[in-house]
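Good morning C.,

I know you're traveling, so I'll keep this short. The sequence:
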Amino acid sequence: MGFAVDVAALRGLPPLFDRLGDDARAGLTYVDSKTVLEYGPGFINRISGKHENAMLAIRDLVEDVAKYTAADTGATLRQSLDYYERTDAAAAERLDQAFRRDWALDRSEYAGFYRDTALPAPFADRTDPQQLLRAVPDYDKDDAFQFEPQLWDMASPTSVARDTIWGATWLAAKLGICDRAYDPYESLLKPVAGDWAGVRGCADVFGNLAAALAGMADNVRWGALSSEQHWQGKAATAFQAHLVDSASKLDTAGGPLLALAAEYRRTAEAMFEIGKVLGSLLSDLVDAAMIFTVTASTAVATSETVIGGVVFGAAALYEGYKMWDILKEALDLVGRADSLTSAFTAAVGNFGMAATAQELPVLAPAPNGMPH
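The tokens, ready to paste straight into the viewer:
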């Protein structure tokens, strides 16, 4: 392998790593500021701690981009260029031939560039990763992600609707229609309440970060290819292989991030839909509870069912069972939310774990033995 180096031309490459460091730090700020969840009293609390651990895994990855792929690699390159500048060509070539490790450069990583007819100047960025860290919509204010108003009305301890359902189900339990009295807030609302809008926003953050990492990878890969015309030899191949490997790992990181985004999006949207249906059912439940209560209070003494000296007719029993059917449907929805959030919790807990599909790649510092 022949040796050649154009130091003046290669001086345009180190700023690429400075920009990469800026991009990575912008990514850190983006993740830190956009993924804080407020949780709530219900099933969402299951991911408390697990969500934070997943964010730490993401943070570690992006910090390594700033530390190794950007700062360490850029510093190593500057040291090598300084060495070449103060050393005669013959001595530099002897040192290069003594480079002990042979690096394999996967040139298939350049395939996309060969098909591109609008390549930028050497060492320029092909992509602006920070532009891909897009603003996250405020899902709290999005009508598509709002629960039915009736659902939240149940939260008040003084809610007439809450008292009505409690009283009606207490009476129905006495009649053997349902198993017990139900507080709609504790049994229906509380389990599904939480910062699901925040969870939905996190999905956008992970998807945007994956796109930004792919942009960073593209810039690094282009830097490697651009350097080939100005730097050949063992050290050059080692450095270029390091860049290509780092770029490949940044691309690989997108897979787990996009999978995590899909889990967050799917769960949040499903919880919103459950909340909407639950709100509608609660509205029907309030009506049924009121009708049952009124019918029971005015029942005539033609029924065989007697509670505390009060006789209940068939009409009251019918309304009671109708109310119970609505309540069971609402409870089934809460059960679906339970199963959904259990699966979601497992997915979040596995993120970043070694030997799983959610494992994140480990970035490496620049190769040892580079000229300095």
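Safe travels,
E.
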